[in-house]
Design brief:
Layout: E1 2-4, E2 7-16, H1 21-24, H2 30-39, E3 51-61, E4 65-69, H3 90-97, E5 104-108, E6 133-137, H4 138-143, H5 149-160, E7 164-167, E8 171-174, E9 177-181, E10 190-194, E11 203-205, H6 213-217, H7 229-246, E12 249-251, E13 259-260
Parallel strand pairs: 4-5, 5-6, 6-7, 11-12
Antiparallel strand pairs: 1-2, 2-3, 3-4, 8-9, 9-10, 10-11, 12-13
Length: about 280
Amino acid sequence: MDRYGRVIALLDSTGTFFEPARTAFPGASAEDWARAVALDPGAAGPDGSWRLDFRCFAVSRPGGRWVLVDAGVGPAHGPAAGWAPVPGRLPAALAQAGIDPADVEAVVLTHLHEDHAGWVRDAADRPFFPEARYVVQRAEVAALDRADPVWDWAVAPLRAAGRLHEVDGLHRLAPGLTLLPTPGHTPGHQSVIVEGADGSREVLVTGDVLVHAVQLGSPAVPYSHERDREAARTSRRALLARASERGALLATAHLRRAFVEPAAASGPLSDLSATLPS
């Protein structure tokens, strides 16, 4: 179990992506790939394959309550089953961390991809977090195709149960917790700012703003599954600028390390800090 301050990293699954890394990240140079291997050597698999983690994060709240950021790949029959390494082990990871699903008061969905919304239900199709509200950007829901498997798996039942909480833009979820729009990977993608307390540093939960160390070392490198590559690039560079200038740690969903120093990134980041609010 990996923890920093109020934030616990919960590893749901690990596997090999269905595309080679050089296909998933077109245009990266040999220098970009060399830097990526140095930053995250565990991601480099045989024959150019890409190994990645699927990770959620739990943020402690007063009174033994928790906020979860993302809901992993889910059970064996979940919407990610066609390509992700299911079933995930989030139930076991929560138990190891001493977190009862009933004590999770909110689940922040950074976006509505299958590998981030899987544990909305458990293996028996019951609500996995029975007391939680699910917080997502309204733009993300509006952009989701009704034929997307996440719609019937998560959005429709959560909306029917009154547990889908749609927000617009920058949103203060709770003291010390702010939702920050970082569009591009999807139209309504959001990241989470966890303010430092008791001397700890700020943590930025990135979601899929960056999904591989090649984008940490070279933020201009696109990902083949970004809906808007230019918007994603802007969000990525701005988020890295904020982290660098504020001394924050990055909490990553797919790198082989949960917590990453932004100082590992290269490039002129500081000039983009005005893109994100302070």
